[in-house]
Amino acid sequence: MSKITTELLLERAVPRSTRLRKIETLNLSKLQLKTGDLDPRLFSRLRHLQKLDLSDNLLDKFPNSLTLPDLRVLNCNNNKLEDVTALKQFPLLEELTYENNVYLTLNDDYKVMFLLQNLRLLNGKDITKLANHVRRVNSRKLTSKVTAHWEKFFRDQLPEKHTAEQVKSIKKKFLKSVQTNVVYGPSSLSEFTRWRVKMIAEEFLAYSLGLELNTDPELEEKMDENEEESTESPREAAEDVGQVTITPRKRKRNNSKLRSRNKRSKSQAKTEEEAVVNPRKSSHVQDDPAPDKPRTSNQSAKEATPEQGDEGTHKNGEQCPKGQSNRRSGQLTGEQKSQEQDNGVVSLTPVKNSKGKEDVSAEPLHFLQCHSKGNSREDFKTQLWSCVFEPLLDCGARKDPIVSSSRTVATCGGESVCLIDCETGTVLKKYKVATEEFFSVAWTTLTMVISDSRKKSHNILAAAGRRGIVKLIHVAADFCYGEIKAHKKPIATVCFSPTRETHLFTASYDKRIALWDIGIPDCDYNFKASQLLVLEAISIPLRIAPVPTCPDQYLLAGCESGCFAWNIELDKEQKSRPFEAIFQFPDEDGSITTSHKVDGLAFLKDDVIASKSSKPGCIYLWSWSRSFDTKGKGCQRTLSAVILAELEWSMTDLSYLTLSTCPAKDYVFCGDEMGNVWMYNLSNYTAAWSSTKGKRSDKKIPPTQILKWPELRANREQLTEVLINNVVSDPTFTYLVVLTSVNITAIWKKS
């Protein structure tokens, strides 16, 4: 039975009403409504409804026949909308808001601006001028290009006396060709452009050849499949139900980072609200990641915004500002304020050991607070998740890892991605998307054709997160040139193939790993992205790594329920593939199990894998070649991981404290729940492990060094309860970048 009844509509009317036809304002927010609950027969009786609030529900689309002829104001914030074209049924709509619908992008903004001729306000912004440009100038340009394309390539293909079959064939070829070849505007609007081009082309054919227009959107969708390369992933046949679906930020802890005698009640309330979801200690099943609270912003939900005072606006509405140092400071004491620009974020006092000596083998250089929401100096809650060093362009980055890194590192967390000079602590660039929460970044080097037809290598940064969209950033040009709608659920991690620079793996909370060819942008930043493979997992993939000895053949992934391997060879016909193997590991009680959360995974050597899973106090080192027989046949084999050694680690049961490796220096790094960094120098062991008869180390290997979290103070109060989410070194182990749960990026330099 539908949740919406006549009695409910009368009760939720503002003011309450006795007849449906008299209702002008209706509030249906926070009712957990799904699309099927919107009964067109019932809504058709709301003939005079002008204002409708459907915010904070579970709508994924609108029915096509709600029949609200007088609707002027519509609020759809905080839903799961995937498409906006059904809104054209409300032609008098003047104000529309749909913020915090993670699957909607800038392309959808342009679609509603074209479809709704009376629309004035979109997500709180006056779009009158831009909408007029979209409806007139944009349409005029595209119509001209479509007509020219027909005249040049197709008009002569159609004989004067033609049959219906000939017309049908030429129409299919023309629609496919025109959507592929007619380009206008930035690549970030390519989906909107293709949508409009198809619409214009069908109208052109209907006028020129007397063909009927196709008005069935579902039929259009089916016709589009397999006919064009798309930046969107295929529609899922059905949503998986009853799966544990959590995002990394939902870690239950006390979000008050400063110990204070007078804690603000407002902060306490916010802490309680954000700590409701507890993936580590709760077995509750969720169908989808719980959305963040609505974010207050004066900007469109689809715009990337620069820091205040920065410059660098680009044609696609996204900005990646130039800047000297965007380093944010905590609230400092009077003496510290005068040194704010030179000394960084917060005051620093290294922890001493019992002998009074500094218990570190690396010296702390910088502690930066550069991912603050709204640039707030009081933000000690934004979690930082991923960092990776930029490859050098003049050293053959894919051939020699020893000299393949600069001192520039990309970090992500919250709504921003930062590029930091590790030596100076300067935030070189900052890229921000107000409605995003970035979880992962990855570098690749592409050979691009510049304006004078010369080829030149450029570093491209891919960034992805909660919205399931991959942003592609040409860092040297300060320009986000495109996006790929890779998944309908958050992306946990991304990585590029070590052998094919345009191949990008994206691992998502939809329990799929997709392989994309992102293409190479031309001098106008036009590019084509295509999906090559979909790897099906039985749980959420958290970490992924191509196997170094066969990077084009196998991919390894640590998931919520185990460690899996897939065959990723592209010469096979099967585009969607199940896993080929699942690995067994010792459990806490010594028994063998495949069911465990693997939240840390990296190769130490070509054949040695470091992984961290459900067994507290332990990091496993194991052999790929001895665990996996590449000549074995059949999918979904269960294999025992051949353990080479165990590393001592914290006894915490907290998840998402990931590990990393420095293969050139034989180091493994992992942070803990106390703010410490555990470092393992394994150079004395790797030679024995490389032997085919190498035996397992009998005892757990202790850390070579534990870097203690220093005493950091802001407002004269100590920063505490620090979790180390990620630790990454450059290939030469000169710098160590530590990402925390308290919005602090710590940079250490090896002594």
What does this 3D model show about the protein?
The chain is α+β, with helices and mostly antiparallel strands and 751 residues long. The chain contains 12 helices and 42 strands. The strands form 10 sheets. Strands 1-2-3-4-5-6 form a 6-stranded mixed beta sheet, with no helix packed on it. Strands 23, 24, 25, 27, 28 and 32 form a 6-stranded mixed beta sheet that branches. A 5-stranded mixed beta sheet has the order 19-20-21-22-26, with no helix packed on it. The longest helix has 26 residues, at 128-153.
Radius of gyration, taken over Cα atoms and rounded to an integer in Å: 28 Å
Q: Indicate the multimeric state.
A: single chain
Structural class: alpha+beta
End-to-end distance: 69 Å
Look at the structure and give the mean pLDDT: 78
Low-confidence stretches: 215-360, 395-404
The major beta sheet can be summarized as: 6 strands, mixed
Kindly state the number of beta strands.
42
Basic shape = globular
Which strands sit side by side, in order, in the main sheet?
1-2-3-4-5-6
Q: Helix coverage percent of residues?
A: 10-25%
Count of helical segments?
Answer: 12
- Beta-strand residue fraction: 25-35%
Family: Belongs to the LRWD1 family.
InterPro entries: Leu-rich_rpt (IPR001611), LRR_dom_sf (IPR032675), LRR_LRWD1_dom (IPR056363), LRWD1 (IPR052489), WD40/YVTN_repeat-like_dom_sf (IPR015943), WD40_repeat_CS (IPR019775), WD40_repeat_dom_sf (IPR036322), WD40_rpt (IPR001680)
GO molecular function: chromatin binding
Biased composition (Basic and acidic residues): 284-295
